[in-house]
Amino acid sequence: MRVEIVRRGGLAGIALRGAVDTTELPADVASRAEAALRALPFGQPPPPPRHPDSFQYQITLQDGDGRSAVVNESDVSAELRPVIDAARSRGQIQ
Q1: Which of 22, 42, 47, 85 is the most buried (most CB within 10 A)?
Q2: Is 94's pLDDT higher than 80?
Q3: Is residue 22 pLDDT above 80, yes or no?
Q4: H helices within the chain, ranges in order?
Q5: Contact by Cβ (8 Å): 1, 36
Q6: In the structure, what pLDDT confidence band is assigned to residue 87 with cuts at 50, 70 and 90?
């Protein structure tokens, strides 16, 4: 499953965009991540940031219809963390 992640917020407010394919993760990690990705609140309005300097992640599934969801940093589950970390490590500042 190919995923694009845009991180916004933080003190500087700079957006960082990165992508990852879950097939690049270990199989057990990928399986849990894909289940968490499918359970995201697609089509919902973005939640308000919990703190002025916190991050929000726009997560877009690039396989299929390109559904997107926005998740606050504090709401990122342990299952989603490897996907976000992998995308962020490859990210580019916009």
Answers
A1: 22
A2: no
A3: yes
A4: 27-38, 81-89
A5: no
A6: very high
CA 55 to chain CA centroid, nearest Å: 11
The residues, any chain, with a CB within 8 Å of residue 72's CB and separated by 6 or more, are 47, 49, 50, 54, 55, 56
The pTM of the full predicted model, rounded to 2 decimals, is: 0.91
Strand order of the sheet with strand 68-72? Answer: 68-72, 55-61, 2-9, 16-21, 92-93
Could you give the dihedral angle defined by the CA atoms of residues 33, 37, 41 and 42, in that order, rounded to the nearest 10 degrees?
Answer: 170
Distance, in Å, from the CA atom of 27 to the CA atom of 42, rounded to the nearest integer, reads 24
Tokens of 2: 């190919």
Per-residue pLDDT tens digits for 67-84: 999 999 999 999 999 999
* DSSP code of residue 90: T
Q: How far is CA 46 from CA 23, 49, 88, in A?
A: 28, 9, 20
Question: Which residues are bridge partners to 7 per DSSP?
Answer: 16, 57
